[in-house]
Amino acid sequence: MGYEVLARKWRPQTFAEVVGQNHVTQTLNNAIQNDRLAHAYLFVGPRGTGKTTTARILAKALNCQNRQGSEPCNTCDSCKEIMKGSSLDVIEIDGASNRGIGDVQELRDNVRYAPVRGPFKIYIIDEVHMLTREAFNAILKTLEEPPPHVKFFFATTEPQKVLTTILSRCQRFDLRRINIADITAQLQKISKAEGITISDDALLAISRGAEGGLRDAESALDQLVSFRGKTIEEADVLSVFGLISRGQLEGLADAILDGNIPAILEAVAGIDQSGKDMQRVVLELLDQFRNLLIVMHAGKNAAAFDLPETQIDTLKNQVAKTTDGRLLRIIELLIDADGRMRYALSKRTMLETALIRASRAATVATIDELMKQVAALKNLPAAPAAVQEESAAYDVKKKPSDDLERLKTAWVSLIEHIAKGVPHAKHYLTDTAPLSVSETHVTIGIDPEFANERSNLENPRTLLFVQKTLSAFLKRPVSADFALLAGKPKPLPADAPAQGIQDKQKYYSNPAVRSVVEAFSGEIIDIRE
């Protein structure tokens, strides 16, 4: 006997062996045991999820001579004939090649004849959506009122192409994509039985590439055995199917979350040089950031959402770097990139620009975050109405002085912390030092030699992160600004009207206005009553 491919050798022969479709097999089991069988069934789902397989098992169960509960015995003559495809009572028809009205008329003429061996004559029509409209109309009456000994089982990947008049006469079962954990478990079972040594990362890579189709995963494993023999590593899977490794994927996601553009460009260059599918990289990243959202919101139940347990710890570490608002923006950018890459002349350029935009989205504060900052500034606790004189003197003089010394001592460490959130800020903060501290404000001095870098430090995102870091260190909300160590205050515009200057000064003195201006590193441009 010739070699039998794994997908055929390991094809399920009972309902219990069907992987990942319990909602379908349980219903069919109950229908058989309670003798509540419909005359027509429609199995819908993506390729490789078990549509035709389930139809064959149901056919065997209905005609089995020694059925065990609702499961076929697979040893009687009827079961063996169905498994070999030689049964006269179970007729399989390919809808793609027998789609005309003549083929259906022949079927309609033959349904009147009684089954040869079992109680039912069963027609399994695969890819039923390929039948012509005339063929559908010809079978319609027979489908609605078939002889009691006839059953119809239809399978399709495109139910929207099946006439509604046909759909309404069938019991429909939607088979879903099989999750990664179930595919991996089945591949482990097959590998163990076949004497194949394969790493966990390799199994995971095959499962990812199968996109929910167990048959595709089994075929991929078969191909890898032909390529590498019975010892398979992750690199073998990646080289054969053009995938990127889990480590590369996680590293690229880390670079996006950190805003590390050089690392992103280096990773894309490596992916391009190794000949990987750029569009597939986008889809893999989409899946990675979807998993981050799941871990962020599902908590301890994350494993129930098709997430491999080996990845959950890494995902938790990445979640700590971001917020759901930023993740949603990244996902939107990747979805947009996926649509554009289908028609892009340079997929590498499209991928690079998309990931740079995603990295900016990962490091720029969202509107919700900014509003929380404003709310925090607005709700600063008021000073006590009355305090002892010694305590007041300590608060005003001693405490800011101590805080300034603490800031100077810890300044290098604080710069390192700020650089984790805003990487480019480290360069500009290197030549700065705390200048003065009050209860609600910190002034940071800049060396006059580097005065041209002041605008970079006053960037709203940089300033906001500096203020958050200082507030956390001082354990109270504070705002911040920058001043030249030997410089002079910035003069007001020479051509500004005198009254306008006075009005602005009046509003600058308002605590609420001053808090918002400092939070966003802004200035009052115009005043309207």
Helix content: 55-70%
Strand order of the largest sheet: 2-3-4-1-5
Number of structural domains = 4
Number of strands: 10
Distance between the termini: 93 Å
Count of runs of 4 or more consecutive helical residues: 24
What are the SSEs and their pairings?
Elements: H1 6-9, H2 22-33, E1 40-44, H3 51-63, H4 77-84, E2 90-94, H5 101-110, E3 121-126, H6 133-144, E4 150-156, H7 164-167, E5 171-174, H8 180-194, E6 197-198, H9 200-210, H10 214-228, E7 231-232, H11 234-241, H12 246-258, H13 261-273, H14 278-298, H15 309-319, H16 324-341, H17 347-363, H18 367-378, H19 389-421, H20 425-429, E8 432-437, E9 441-446, H21 454-457, H22 460-474, E10 479-484, H23 498-508, H24 511-519
Parallel strand pairs: 1-4, 1-5, 2-3, 3-4, 6-7, 9-10
Antiparallel strand pairs: 8-9
Helix pairs in contact: 3-4, 5-6, 8-9, 9-10, 9-11, 12-13, 12-14, 12-17, 13-17, 14-15, 14-16, 16-17, 18-24, 19-22
Could you explain the architecture of this structure?
By secondary structure, the protein is α/β, with parallel strands linked by helices. It folds into four domains: 6-174, P-loop containing nucleotide triphosphate hydrolases (Rossmann fold), CATH 3.40.50.300; 180-241, Helicase, Ruva Protein, domain 3; 246-363, Zinc Finger, Delta Prime, domain 3 (Up-down Bundle); 390-519, GMP Synthetase, Chain A, domain 3, CATH 3.30.300.180. Helix content is 56%, strand content 9%. It has 24 helices and ten strands. It has helices at residues 6-9, 22-33, 51-63, 77-84, 101-110, 133-144, 164-167, 180-194, 200-210, 214-228, 234-241, 246-258, 261-273, 278-298, 309-319, 324-341, 347-363, 367-378, 389-421, 425-429, 454-457, 460-474, 498-508, 511-519, and strands at residues 40-44, 90-94, 121-126, 150-156, 171-174, 197-198, 231-232, 432-437, 441-446, 479-484. It has a five-stranded parallel sheet with strand order 2-3-4-1-5, covered by helices on one side. α6 (133-144) links the parallel β3 and β4. α14 (278-298) packs antiparallel against α16 (324-341), α16 (324-341) packs antiparallel against α17 (347-363) and α18 runs antiparallel to α24 (511-519). The longest helix is centred in the C-terminal third of the chain and has 33 residues, at 389-421. The protein is elongated, with a radius of gyration of 34 Å.
